[in-house]
Amino acid sequence: MRMYDLIVKKRNGGELNEEEIRFFIENYTNGQIPDYQVSALMMAIYFQKMTERETLALTMVMAESGDMLDLSGISGVKVDKHSTGGVGDKTTLALAPMVAACGVPVAKMSGRGLGHTGGTIDKLESFPGFSTGIPIGQFIENVNTHGISVMGQTADLAPADKKLYALRDVTATVDNMSLIASSIMSKKLAAGADAIVLDVKTGSGAFMKTEEDSFALAEEMVKIGKNAGRKTVAVITDMDQPLGFAVGNALEVKEAIDTLKGQGPEDFTGLCMTLGTQMLLLGGKAKDEKEAESMLREVISNGKALEKLAEFVHAQGGDEQAVYNPELLPAAELSVPVCAPESGYISRIVCDEIGVCSLILGGGRETKESIIDLSVGIVLQKKVGDYVEKGQPLGILYGNDREKLQAAGQRMLQAYSFQEKPVERKPLIRGMIS
User: Fold this and answer.
1) What percent of the chain is modeled with pLDDT above 90?
2) Catalytic residue positions, numbered
3) How many angstroms separate the CA atoms of 54 and 67, rounded?
């Protein structure tokens, strides 16, 4: 078999079989096929697209290129949740304890953030002493004992995807639905869950900016999951403005804690209920959506979800007292309000610009070597559809450097648009693929 022949076949619109896909992935991963030939194949795929069979084969081969996590030692149906990412997306911090408190085991492998804000692991490390660098044996034991555990992604999880994505990133071949979907799902399948709930974001703060593209990606990923034998549901959700009010690591942890106390923002609480409902249904703990939502509300009202978060934090070396006393979390020295330059209804917030403000303050990573300041970030006071008077705070910036606070404040003002007439608020949940 020759790579040249595969390039020609795909360039001419042919369908690659599983053997051919396995040949190029395995040999590219081990260094036998050069970048320039795989670049040519990626460009052919970009223009000719991939069939459903090709997409599944590519996903499975990439998943099998490294460690395949075996979660058979965990009793019950293991349901994973994946978000395509956004600004203020602290969902796992509240959702995982809620679902675990309802009896569905949550065994999650997460990563660090590279971009606007930290990833789930960075946020969890706001708890003093918390560690996700635990061995697989402890990970499984924690889930069996406590119903929940989160560990860092291993270097050997879908290594083919890491190498292929790095190449696509510099050859203008990222933007292809099959390649995007297989990249995401290869890691999810390698992580070993029995069922997967996907939170596919859409809007200015999302990877997919339009609803059309977001639905297309959701459909592609659900097809892959089901063809791979995993129960899979995708929920398409709004990311045209930050989720909740807090953006930043420790600040988002505080908001997640508030949510587990029943005092969280309406949009964030609603998202946790929607995703949690699907996780309980896939986990076989509820007969319908009404019962599932009732179970989730019950563990919030009786305090079991908050207790589960504290139990989880303690099991992984963290100070569980910070769950009950968030003042123990990292806190910035300075806070500065950003005030409305005019009166009116907020018609738009350029969501990813708010993320950039957090990055300026030190709450995200520009490179893999960047060190995150867990204490900094933004707490919005007003969102789309709200009326503000000139001089009222749009949000409060938290930081440890006055120059960075000034730069972030100027950037934040540019993200807002105002109008005289009331604004129609968009729904958080745009649709579901199941």
Assistant:
1) 86
2) 82, 161, 168, 183, 187
3) 22
